[in-house]
Amino acid sequence: MWIILSAVFVQIVFLLSVFDIHFHSPIVKGMTPYANPIPAPAKRLVLFSADGLRFDTFLSYGNDREPNAKFLRSIASSRGKWGLSNTRVPTESRPGHVAMIAGLYEDPSAVFRGWKENPVEFDSVFNQSSYTFGWGSPDILSMFSKGTKGNVMSYTYSSESEQFTGHDAYKLDEWVFEHFERFIKMAPHNATLSSMLQERKLIFFIHLLGLDTNGHTNKPHSTFYTDNLRYVDQGIAKIEGLINDYFKDNQTAFIFTADHGMTDWGSHGAGHPSETQTPIVAWGAGINTKNIDAAHWENNRNDMEQADVAPLMAALLGINFPVNSVGKLPLAYLADEMLWKSHCALANVQQLSRSFQALTQRQQDRSLSLRFRPFWPLESNQVSAHNLQQIEASIRSGYYNESIQQSLNLMDLCLQGMDYFYRYDEFQLKMFITLAYIGWAGILAVFIIQERVTTSKKKTGHQFRLIDQIVFGLSVVIFIVLTVEGVPFLYYAYHLLPLMLWWYCLRQSKQMLRQTIRLIRIRHFVWATFLLGGLEFIVAGFFYRWFLSVGLVFMSLWPHWDQHSSSRWRHHETFKSLWMFTFLILAMFPVFPPVGKHSVPILVDIGGMILTVMAFWSSLVMHHDRDRTVLVCYTIAIPITLYVRHSVSDSLVQGQGLPVLEQALSWILLCLPLTLPLIGPSLVWPRLIGIVITLTPSFLLLSLSYEGIFFAVLVVALAIWIRLEAAIPATDSFWTQLRRSYFFLFLTFLSFFGLGNLASLNSFDPSSVRCFVTTFSPFTMAGLLLWKITVPFIAVSSALWAITVQHQLSMKNVYLMILLLSAAMAVQFFHWVTSRGSWLDIGTSLSHYVIVQFTVVFVMLLRSVVQFLTHGPIYFHATRPTASKYDKD
């Protein structure tokens, strides 16, 4: 057990290390805010956030050949500025709104630390405003109302209103527009509210969730999505009219943008351009309206980064720039009042310079003087101060354009310097984690070899004492240095873990090294080469799924090219043929379109019927009456599942909501596997069949397309694998066991990538969980999606358990081999993770590494799940008076 716990701990450290290497919290506290001393042109600002709006949809036309955003396009072509706002991964609502309102890009892990509330306090334009009034989703508004000085007032609908079913998601936006109209019309009759609205530095935040909901439910190319955009466009025109009629001073600025886009199949979260590209339109007070060519306005884009929206709002209102903002003021959007404009640029560069200085000081305080490496273009505070003085001198002399250019140059240097300190420990941490990977692989190899060779009991105490002394001395030095530098707690694990792993490996390996060398033959190098090539097929499958198909074709030939075992399969020709046929069918799935892009309910029904027939046939051939009765009862749950799916679908289409009975049945079917330890069969084959049958209902309830068919074929392949392995003696070679571990690893990754590629993680269709929940609940939905991914993993793990039981193998040895193979893959993905390049590259590299590490941890945890499902006295052969004919070999 301690080996499993150690493995989980090591894998978690490896997983967390990539975030500390490449992604850092941008929050630095205790900094002085900066604002433009020149009076701002806008007294108030209205921010429209069209959640989930794609850039291309914003420019699209409807079937009537009219623009889908007619009003906003007319603004962009006549009296405003527009462009493309580039978001960053993860393209989710929380980080997107934090970027546009606070000007900072959150550490990606913040998405998991909190959704509705801030995991950390950060400054934003809302904090710096005199008052902010917001309308929209409770999930978004609550993020910015927590921890403020009481100046942010939120008006939200209930969470139950966020239904991911039906075709009336536009009503969420209707609620926002109606309540804003009531608010404005009520103001003249409320003295307190009227007084608040006369203040300068007001912000009205209009969050519009209908597009995101319609995109998830009906997809972005549906008429529901584009009609929702038209409704939003009309609502914005109405709000502008209400604002102008109430204030009558033309001192209102308007900004329209989106937090993220959406893929064609209605998902977001990764780095595809359809997810990262959103529109932005700005008009009103303080916005540059010169040189607008109405005939060619689409070619006059002024693109920006999403974090640039925050300094733009701060400049228009004359408020403090958010202290942790990394946004760069998009000067093309500002009116040509050069004194004000140059001071806006100065305030922006002062804020960025202060952020850079704070990061420099923080790193200098952490580092010993000999280890500190400054950012040489701004190696001292005097350099930054001198540059700022030059900018101020240019403004005083009236050289506004020159001062603006100087500000832009210094902004670039400050941002480069901040990036430098964010990556300050990158090389050092990568080196230590790589050494830890090598040490971990060495320990796994030592454990595996210890089971194969007889080691001498003779101790070499002097050599061990020397190793102990060296490792202890290095550990003390590293610990002292890290303590003096005040590094985060996890840095101790990153630096000390490789020492501990190498120490244990060196102590254990010397005794068996000579005996291991004697056992090595040339053919072992050939087998090792083939094994590494097989691992690279899995690695390539992360990028191109068809590599998995090629790998499955090669695996289909295994009973024919394994001459060592073929003589034992003379009486299993049928199974050999079935193995080839089944794996060739499995090879088709990785070339199918990923699940999630299109919903095909008829394929779910076909998969359910296939699994029902398989389950009934497997149940009825049981010879033991109790096993037959239990399995038949379990099998009845599959047709019930298909009924629940159709009943829920009909109810939602008719607008009647999720039926309570069907929802209760769905949750009961989800918990069906929990009954196996209590009433499940005690022979291996019936227990395996019971595991598959009880997992099937929840898997089908969460399915959208061909998942059920894939699961049925996978189960058949696993059954044949168990049968063929049964003919191989338990005392077979080390390489046979390693081959089994490779098959398990390949089938495990096939369980994920056979149904989709990387996009399937974020191609989440809310309709897949509609039998369980229909309101927006991110963690419940994520948990259900995770369970769906886990079901095939459990089936593969159960097959491996059966093989180890029938051969009376040690599960420890099998998992050690799996961990060793996984480490060889994971170290490659570790070095491929990047925070540079396109956001698609960044998101893909990070997701690949997370998938590998999570899969390894999953394999460890699924061992406990399988142990639970197989709890009780389990027999492989018929040790009882009656047994299934499957158990008579």
From TrEMBL:
InterPro entries: Alkaline_phosphatase_core_sf, GPI_EtnP_transferase_1, GPI_EtnP_transferase_1_C, Phosphodiest/P_Trfase, PIGN_N
Keyword presence, Signal: yes
UniProt subcellular location: Endoplasmic reticulum membrane
Annotated signal sequence range: 1-30
BP term (GO), one: GPI anchor biosynthetic process
Primary subcellular site in the record, as a coarse category: endoplasmic reticulum
Gene Ontology terms: cellular component: endoplasmic reticulum membrane
Keyword list, A-Z: Endoplasmic reticulum, Glycoprotein, GPI-anchor biosynthesis, Membrane, Signal, Transferase, Transmembrane, Transmembrane helix
TM region positions: 431-450, 462-483, 525-558, 578-595, 602-623, 629-648, 660-679, 699-722, 742-761, 781-802, 814-834, 846-866
Record carries keyword Plastid: no
EC number(s) given by UniProt: 2.-.-.-
Role, per record: Ethanolamine phosphate transferase involved in glycosylphosphatidylinositol-anchor biosynthesis. Transfers ethanolamine phosphate to the first alpha-1,4-linked mannose of the glycosylphosphatidylinositol precursor of GPI-anchor.
PANTHER family on file: GPI ETHANOLAMINE PHOSPHATE TRANSFERASE 1, PHOSPHATIDYLINOSITOL GLYCAN, CLASS N
Family: Belongs to the PIGG/PIGN/PIGO family. PIGN subfamily.
Stated name of the protein: GPI ethanolamine phosphate transferase 1
